[in-house]
Specification:
The chain is of the alpha+beta class and about 400 residues long. Helix 6 packs across helix 7. It binds 2-oxopentadecyl-CoA (NHW) and ligand EN5.
Length: about 400
C-alpha cells in the first residue's frame, strides 16, 4: 500500500497496538562520515538547488510555486497562499540551515518545479527533549505529480538533516500516512459570514437568513479584557516563562527558549499577531494569545480572489478565562479584516471552540514523527505543538 513509507523508520500500521515495541528512536544515529555525501539522483533534466530565501528573486519563485501548486481543500475551491514575508519568517528561526531549504529546477529553463524545507526545533516528547527538523512546504508542480518525486525529496531532506547530526523530524499533513501520533480537527469561526457564504467556504444554516447569520457572528467593537495589549520586545522573558510552564503540561510540545519566543511570537505585520495581559503590580505576563496569517486563494470566483484567514497559534491563560481571551482575539482579528479565524482542537482549545461559535471544518490534520515511536496515539488535547 505504501511502497515508500514502508521503507522508512516511522511507526507502521502493522505495529499499532504492539506494546512490546519500545518508545523512542526507531533507528540509531550512524557516524556522520557514513551519511551519504552526494545528493540523491533526480530524473534527467532536473537539478537540486539550495534556496536563498533572502534573495528577492528566489523568494518570488518559491512563493509562485506554492501559490499555484500547494495545498488545496478536498473540493479544490481554496489553495493556501503563504506570503513571502511569512515564508521568510517560517524558514529562518534561530539556528536555521540554508541547506534545508531545497528546490528542484528544470536544468535547461531553471524553472522551479518542486520544494521541501526543514527548520530545526527542540521538541519534548514525554520527558525527553529531542533535536528535530520540522518538515514543511513539500510541493511538486501539478504537471509533475505521481512520478515518485516526493520520496526523493523526502530522502534528500532527510540526508541533509542527518548531515547536521539530527535524526528525528516532526511534520503534519492532511493525508493519512504511516502513522499519525495524533489526528486533529480544524474548526472555523466566521468573522465575515456574507463573504464566506458567497465564496462557498460556508453555507447558510438551516432556517437561517443572511441577516440572522450576520447577527449571530457579530462581535463587540473593542476588546473586553483590561490591559489586553500587543506583545512587545521587552515582554520576551515573561512570555517565555509563561509559555514554557504551560507547554510542560503536554505530551508533545516545543521546548521554547527566549530566542525562539522572540522569533516565533513577537508580532510581525501580516505574519504573526500576539497579545497579552500583564499584571499591573508584578509586571508578570498572566495571559497570552497569538495567531498567524495564512490567506487562501479563492479558485475561480468572480468577485473575490483572497480569503483572509487567521490561524490560532499558542494561547495561555492563567488569570483571564481562556474563553474571554480568545473572544478578544476574535475581536482583534475582525478589526484587522480577517474573514475567518481557524483553530485546531489541540491543547485546551476544546474549552472555547463551541462556545465562541467555531464550527467543525471538513479538514483534518494528522501529526507525525519521523524515527521516533510513541506507544499510544495522543488525544489532540495532549498535543502542545502547532506547525505552520
Ligand atoms: S503537508 C503538505 C504536502 N503538500 C501538498 O499537499 C501540496 C500539494 N501536493 C503536492 O505537491 C505539509 C504533491 O501531491 C506531493 C506528493 C508533493 C504532496 N507527506 O511523488 P509522488 C508538509 O509539507 C507520499 C509525506 O508520486 P505526488 C509535510 C505518498 O504516500 N508523504 O506523489 C511534508 C506516496 O508514498 P507511498 C506524502 O502526489 C512531510 C508518495 O508520497 C505526502 O506527486 C514529508 C508518492 O509520491 C505528504 N504530504 O507528490 C515527510 N503526500 O509510500 C517528511 C504524498 O504511500 C519526513 N506522500 O507510496 C521526515 C523527513 C526528515 C527526516 C529527518 C531525520
Ligand atoms: C501543514 N502545515 O482542507 C498543512 N481546509 O477544515 C498541510 N474547510 O478550510 C495540511 N471543501 O470546512 C493541510 N468550511 C490540511 C488542510 C487542507 C485545507 C483544508 C479545511 C479545514 C477547510 C472549509 C472550506 C471547505 C470548502 C469545501 C470548511 C466550513 C466552515 C463552517 C463555518 C461556519 C461553522 C461551520 C463550519
Amino acid at each position: 500500500r505504501h511502497k515508500f513509507w514502508e521503507t522508512q523508520p516511522v511507526g507502521q500500521f502493522k505495529d499499532i497496538g504492539d506494546s512490546s515495541l519500545p518508545e523512542g528512536p526507531i533507528e540509531l544515529p550512524i557516524p556522520l562520515s557514513e551519511v551519504k555525501q552526494e545528493p540523491y539522483n533526480l530524473p534527467d533534466h532536473y537539478e537540486w538547488v539550495t534556496c536563498d530565501i533572502n534573495s528577492e528573486e528566489t523568494c518570488d519563485e518559491v512563493y509562485n510555486l506554492l501559490a499555484h501548486n500547494y495545498v488545496e481543500d478536498d473540493e479544490n475551491m481554496f489553495r493556501f497562499n503563504y506570503s513571502k514575508e511569512f515564508l521568510r519568517w517560517a524558514l529562518q528561526p534561530p539556528g536555521y540551515f540554508k541547506s534545508w531549504h531545497i528546490g528542484v529546477r528544470v536544468k535547461s529553463s531553471k524553472k522551479m518545479v518542486a520544494f521541501i524545507t526543514g527548520v530545526p526545533a527542540r521538541i519534548r516528547v514525554h520527558d525527553e527533549v529531542v533535536h528535530m527538523a520540522e518538515i514543511n512546504f513539500l510541493c511538486v508542480h501539478k504537471k509533475l505529480r505521481t512520478k515518485r518525486l516526493a520520496p526523493v525529496m523526502i530522502k534528500e531532506v532527510t540526508r541533509r538533516v542527518h548531515l547536521e547530526n539530527m535524526w528525528q523530524a516532526a511534520y503534519t499533513a492532511g493525508v493519512v500516512l504511516p502513522t499519525p501520533i495524533a489526528t486533529c480537527q480544524y474548526w472555523h469561526r466566521s468573522l465575515n459570514p456574507k463573504k464566506l457564504i458567497d465564496v462557498g467556504f460556508s453555507r447558510l444554516g438551516a432556517r437561517m437568513t443572511m441577516s440572522r447569520t450576520i447577527k449571530l457572528y457579530k462581535l463587540p467593537e473593542s476588546t473586553i479584557t483590561p490591559g489586553f495589549r500587543k506583545m512587545e520586545i521587552h515582554d520576551v522573558p515573561a512570555v517565555t516563562r509563561l509559555i514554557r510552564n504551560y507547554l510542560s503540561h503536554f505530551v508533545v510540545a516545543p521546548d521554547f527558549d527566549e530566542n525562539d519566543v522572540e522569533h516565533w511570537l513577537l508580532p510581525r505585520d501580516g505574519v504573526i499577531d500576539s497579545y497579552l495581559v500583564a499584571s499591573p503590580e508584578t509586571h508578570e505576563v498572566t495571559d497570552f494569545c497569538s495567531f498567524y496569517t495564512l490567506p487562501s486563494s479563492i479558485l475561480g470566483h468572480q468577485n473575490y480572489k483572497i480569503l483572509k484567514a487567521a490561524y490560532s497559534f499558542y494561547n495561555v491563560s492563567t488569570v483571564t478565562p481562556l474563553l474571554q481571551l480568545m473572544n478578544d482575539a476574535l475581536i482583534v482579528a475582525k478589526h484587522k479584516d480577517y474573514d475567518v479565524f481557524n483553530a485546531l482542537d489541540v491543547m485546551q482549545n476544546e474549552t472555547f471552540l463551541r462556545e465562541l461559535k467555531f464550527g467543525p471544518g471538513d479538514g483534518k490534520l494528522h501529526y507525525y514523527l519521523y524515527n521516533y515511536r510513541i506507544r499510544h496515539a495522543l488525544k489532540p488535547s495532549e498535543l502542545g505543538l502547532v506547525l505552520l
